[in-house]
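Field notebook, page 256. I keep forgetting to write these up properly, so this time I am using the form the group agreed on. The chain and the ligand, phosphoenolpyruvate, are recorded exactly as supplied. Prediction of the bound pose follows.
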Amino acid sequence: MDRKKVIAGNWKMNMTASEGAQLIADLKANCDGSCKCATAPEVMVFPPFTTIAAVQEATKGTPIIVGAQNVHWAANGAFTGEISAKMLVEMGVTHVIIGHSERRQYFGETDETVNQRVKAALAAGLKVILCIGETLEQREKGVTEAIIEKQVRWDLADVTMEQLDNVILAYEPVWAIGTGKTATNEQAQEVHAFVRALIAKIFCPVCAGKIRILYGGSMKPANAAGLLAQPDIDGGLIGGAALKAADFLALIKAAC
Ligand code: PEP
């Protein structure tokens, strides 16, 4: 099945509003013909909440999708520091990252809270990039597939086949995020194929053929082509390399 590739930049806690607008201006200024290829990927950026409005303004008239890095499951209430799906939707946000390993590692997110966030986001009409991935310790113990299966089953519990059309998965081995260590093409493809087969088992074979599974973990211009050439890798969720216009543009071109 033909799946449109995705190049998504997770800006994490980087880029003030003015810096974010400048990064978009640099992307626009340097996007020559080759980054608008016929098979151009969907390009997404996920700035911090306070930078979203400036980036929406800066991306007007471009196909760049502007998303958020997290969402709470409640519609409103006493949840200091959180943002609801309704708030995102009202400001025109269409996509949200959920379950990033940094949220799980540093902010106590569990598969249960990730699942609640996923369900609330989908119910509000948002499209979700759901992150999954094993730690180094888990990989070394040989339990990568068991961990991935647990995350996929739990994080997507009660999600319908119809709703799955609005989910993109991101396989991000925790040991490769921000470390400069990348999974080899073979390591990444192996897990992506496993995830796709799992989606076929849990949902349906057609769902598995349709769902896009991104790789994340130190993807950069030097390793992108090999990863993106794998049959089950449908794009990248990119941290560090998404903060430099030249690198991000090179990744977009690599996905053409
Ligand atoms: C990420 O934040 O999802 C990520 C993959 O980061 P990096 O590309 O910096 O490893």
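OBSERVATIONS:
- The pocket of phosphoenolpyruvate is lined by residues 10, 12, 172, 177-178, 216-219, 237-241 (CB under 6 Å).
- The first helix runs from residue 17 to 30.
FOLLOW-UP: compare against the apo run.
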